[in-house]
Amino acid sequence: MTRTVRGAKVLITGAAGGMGRLFAERAVDEGATSVTLWDRDVIALARAVDELGAASRGRTRVQSYVVDVSDPGAIAKHAQRVRRDVGNPDVLINNAGIVRGNRYFWETDSGDDTRPTMQVNALAPMYITREFLPGMISSSYRAARIVNIASAAGTLANPRMAVYAASKAALIGWSESLRIELEQADHTNVRVTTVTPGYVSTGMFAGARAPRLAPILEPEYVVDRVWRAMLAGKPLVELPRSVGLSRAVRGILPTRVFDRVVGDAFGVYRSMERFTGRP
């Protein structure tokens, strides 16, 4: 177990705001050698670099790259720049994500909804990790970490977010497989943590209603739990605890009974009816 990221090179996607920004703050506070921010929001990214740079007081090099992670070419280009400018990261947090909701699947558009959701949520973490993983494996840094921010939606189907649920299910499957592969290949210096939170109040799920036993989570709480799990090299973080419980119940109850008890009675299947999201 490692206790801090002091001396590590950290890269975070979706880092201009929300949980990504909070992860960056933790890295700066703990004295990371460098903190690299990827995001497509130019203004928010510049503000984050200025504020984090001031907070670091010169102890941490903070730099940013404007990257649209839905573009594999942009990922490859900026990964090369990162390796040239600051070196291969020791800690990679795949945090960037998008959601399109409040519509049934047949009402969605393949170009505006399906393709970008799968590209950002499922494919981008794979492309980004593939760019940096060989360097993490061969590095002398003994506590390399990969964190993949998935969603409880990837473990429990939910109406009005079919594509989002599919993208996060794909992310979970890949992340868990990657963890096992690294362990089998004895690359134990690299640990993978998969995160499956419920709704988090970052604005991404504005308008969504919390199901019973699954309150909307504060981002600071989620980041703290994920950070500690990452440092410890834990494989899975399920927040709140009801996420793990619902997954277990889903494996026990017949499908129609589960629909009535968890989906309808606990309000899971109605939670996206008033979803608005970010503008």
TrEMBL record:
Keywords: Oxidoreductase. It comes from the Bacteria. The keyword Disulfide bond does not apply. InterPro entries: NAD(P)-bd_dom_sf (IPR036291), Sc_DH/Rdtase_CS (IPR020904), SDR_fam (IPR002347). The keyword Oxidoreductase applies. Pfam families: adh_short. Transmembrane segments: none annotated. One of its GO terms (molecular function) is oxidoreductase activity, acting on the CH-OH group of donors, NAD or NADP as acceptor. Belongs to the short-chain dehydrogenases/reductases (SDR) family. This is SDR family NAD(P)-dependent oxidoreductase. It comes from Agromyces albus.
